[in-house]
Amino acid sequence: MAVVSTQTPSSIYPSHLLEETPEFQDVIASSPPPTDDADLAAVRVGAVLWKLRSSNAWYRRRYWVDTQNMRLHYEPSHKPFWCNAKQHVDILDIKDARLGWKTDVFNLAGRLAEKKRAKDPQRPPMLREDCCFSIIHGRENKSLDLVASDPETAATWVRGFKSLMTVVHAVEKRRSDQQWLKLLFNQADKDGSGALSFDECCQLLLQLNMKIDPEAAMKLFQISNVNKRKIKGEQAIDAEEFIQFYQLLLVRPEIETLFRKYSEDDGASMSPNGLRQFLEKEQSMKDVKAEFAVGLIRRFDPSPSKEMGRMTLAGFTALMTSPMFEILDESQRDQVVQNMTHPLSHYFMASSHNTYLTGNQLTSESSIEAYISVLKNGCRCIELDLWDGPDGEPVIYHGNTLTGTVPVKDVLNDAIKPFAFKTSTYPLFLSFENHLCLEQQAVLATQIKDAIGDLLCLMDVADMKELPSPEQLRNKIIIKAKKYMSVGSHNAPSPTSNSSPAPSPTPGKEEQPAENNQSSSQPVVPLPDANSSQQEKTLQPIAKDLFDMVNICEAVKFHGFANSLKKDKCYHISSFSEGKALDLITESSEDFVRHTTRQLVRIYPAATRTTSSNFSPFPHWAVGSQVVALNYQTNSKEMRMYRGFFRQNGNCGYVLKPQYLINNTFPLPLQHDKLQKYLKVRIISGQYLPKVGENENSIVDPYVTIKILGHSADTFSFRTRVVANNGFNPYWDEAVEVFLRAPELAVICFTVKDSQTIGASRFIGSYSLPVNHISPGYRHVPLVRNGEPLSSATICIQVEMKDLND
User: Fold this and answer.
1) Residues 6+ apart with CB under 8 A from 383
2) Distance separating the N- and C-terminal Cα atoms of the chain
3) Distance, CA of 339 to CA of 669 (rounded, Å)
4) Hey, is 553 helix, strand or coil?
5) Is the per-residue pLDDT at 6 higher than 70?
6) Active site residues
7) pLDDT, tens digit (0-9, with 9 covering 90-100), for 601-659
8) What is the largest CA-CA distance in the chain?
């Protein structure tokens, strides 16, 4: 029937009527002075700004916001006529607006400007920070770095963009709002006749990303044309009739059936009692009060019926498609619900590998944006590969490769300091791979103190028997690093005033080897001579100030579970490659679980994953590994499952382990006849599925897959049939049942794909979440692609669950 054409951010937005929306008025009312509509007016009028592409590439252009299509435009462009690169940024693509030097480009340009100023103090500043601002946009978090003529203009543009982003994102979520539809109608009514023809309506719907089957749409158009108005001999509908036409296109059979089931005899409206019965019987809500039902009617129903305490089909549809009835348990979305007072070793932690990279492990760029992105997504352990940099200041990059570098100072000041606790207030771990000389280690320690010194965890671990809890460490940053570097005696760094006690060939007590003469603290810098003997190696303490910052997360060499049980401290952490960890699990999974009840373990991808691919975290979680580090920059199926697992507990980045991984009562093997949970999922329909590929005239042929991963005994997959030529409202109505043995670790992933006659199916979107936190009843699954929500794209499902231990 009707299908979506494409879900691009450039949806139509009325320009002169934008200020009439409730969202706009709410933003203005809640914004502190001087943020008001004058800021938005300023960005509409535009200004001449300088764009920085690099420190020596400046472009003078006029920028302005086109509020009709919600785009930031610029002119003139010096691109050749055969270049098809777009000359605008869609407002819906904008992630952030930052004042000052807060991007890689500005940081580099700022440093060069300060160097020139230092050589000639009388010289006027080439680049003033208070005149600079950046627009962060797109899936790859690109930065548009701009310089205004004065600080006031820069601040006005940042405020204007923040307000505009709030308005646009709020309005985008209210597609079916009647006032919004009227605004769209007025925008499309070019001649001011107060009516639109069928062709004009179809054109407007195309701008709303809806591609209509003409024959089916004409039938609905004629039903809506109650007044039988004609303009120039063609049927035309007014604003109220257009709203009815639009809503007829949105008719959902499954929702209408539910509405009729619980409405009164006439089927036209639902009483508070009928709504209460629906909530209790279908949605499994307990003891719903009549007052609560009345409140929902007033909140969601747009018609006058709500004044009489009754809900119409339109109001019921709005309720059913609201965030209240999304698939993830509402209690898990925005609040921490688990006990956060256990030792750190009792939690799984969202962790990133080579956080600084934007792509592959060999040639991609390093950027502060990569750090900001993972921190915004709730990651609680980020990695910093530290190498000696120019001018005596350390840098971060993937050593001995062609990847770009980023100064540690920029990461500390522009990513970690402002974003460490934006999403989660629970502790953030900085995992150091230290390849620095002693001099630059001392510089690093100073940079850390200057940027985040007040946030550092500086606990005394002398008598520590168990790790502190996440609750005790709220808003604290913990450094994970080795305290001793192993170096050849012929090339040991010369001591400095900041160095720790002199090198000694004999390790201290805590670093004493367990089974041979190797130190429990291995080299973090490569030796010049790979053939040098073990006897030539000695232990060199890291710089004293840095040494003193390492406490509850000291990295040590692993020498076996038995040795760790005897000699390791609770604050020691060992790291394993994915392959080494799997070998240990195969050899002794019970010992692995026992080890992780007391100490942290970090698992990282194999060195062969040069494309930044990911491994499955589930085998490692199944034995209690806490810090399973994945490549966040790669939107793989493993990463989608990983994100889904950490959606629970308010997305705080910490998930309490199941009791059997805490109490050392790990059931190995699981009793295969002991079923813990029953789950039935009915996949009903889809809504607003976007097209994929470059062909604008293509129509998707969607199908849905369900995949469950967790313990090896709980692997499960299912696929629906293909619905041909329908991305607007495909209907499947297929159900599947599954029994689970370890539901605490199970994650379910819903994926929608576009079937292809030739070649592999194309990915449309997906959503994953922990099985234990699925909400029962009729629910909507909000689809995500490349880590970003797909506007209005959902699948409707019905869920039935039962705990079999009750």
Assistant:
1) 352, 353, 354, 355, 356, 431, 433, 629
2) 46
3) 28
4) coil
5) no
6) 353, 398
7) 999 999 999 999 999 999 999 999 999 999 999 999 999 999 999 999 999 999 999 99
8) 98
